[in-house]
Design brief:
There is one protein chain. It contains no helices and eleven strands. The chain is an all-beta fold. The chain has a domain of 120 residues: TolB, C-terminal domain (Neuraminidase), CATH 2.120.10. Strands 1-2-3-4 form a four-stranded antiparallel beta sheet, with no helix packed on it. It has a four-stranded antiparallel beta sheet with strand order 5-6-7-8, with no helix packed on it. It has a three-stranded antiparallel beta sheet with strand order 9-10-11, with no helix packed on it. The chain starts with 30 loop residues before the first strand and ends in a 30-residue tail after the last strand. The N terminus and C terminus are likely disordered.
Length: 180
């Protein structure tokens, strides 16, 4: 019996005999927290600019940087998440000693702040592809918890082309805390 030992690079590719397509026009750089839109057309990631963590939004495969609205003035950023077509970009921002969860509507330029009690520190978030729900990992009293928000009364659905929306109307947040 022969033992075969292979050395794998920590950044290697598991292509299993196929050639990797490699990066496609997204440039090289020190990036963190990558997030793809549901349709795979947009990439949000965190880069350091002028000593601050900043979210950038790029179109694939061209690598063209897309402008952000009011979100660009709310830094530093952490944990980006995109809706299906990239209309909504959810991210954590730092304001003073407090971290906040916000969602930028790229179609209208509005910035929506989500209410969290003052004893909750958001760590990560994940936006549903249709933009109707948001999960936020928070630390409260030394414990990690996940809070779910129903955004259907706040945001229009961001669906793949050709899909109709149903329902709607103003609905409260699922286990969303009241305003502090």
């Amino acid at each position: 019996m022969t033992l075969v030992i292979a050395s794998l690079s920590s950044c290697g590719s598991w292509s299993w005999g196929r050639r990797s397509a490699g990066p496609s026009g997204l440039g090289q750089g020190d990036r963190q927290d990558p997030a793809l839109s549901g349709n795979g057309r947009l990439l949000a990631s965190i880069v350091e600019r002028s000593g601050r963590e900043t979210v950038i939004l790029q179109e694939k495969p061209s690598g063209r940087l897309l402008p952000l609205g009011p979100l660009q003035h709310q830094q530093p950023h952490r944990s980006p998440s995109l809706s299906w077509n990239g209309r909504y970009l959810a991210v954590l921002v730092q304001q003073g000693a407090r971290r906040l969860a916000v969602i930028e509507d790229r179609a209208t330029g509005q910035l929506h702040r989500l209410p969290l009690p003052s004893d909750c520190e958001p760590q990560r978030l994940s936006l549903a592809p249709d933009g109707r729900r948001l999960a936020i990992e928070v630390v409260r009293g030394g414990r990690s918890l996940v809070q779910m928000f129903d955004l259907s009364g706040l945001l229009e659905a961001d669906l793949p082309g050709g899909l109709a929306t149903t329902g709607g109307g103003l609905q409260g947040a699922d286990s969303a805390p009241s305003h502090p």
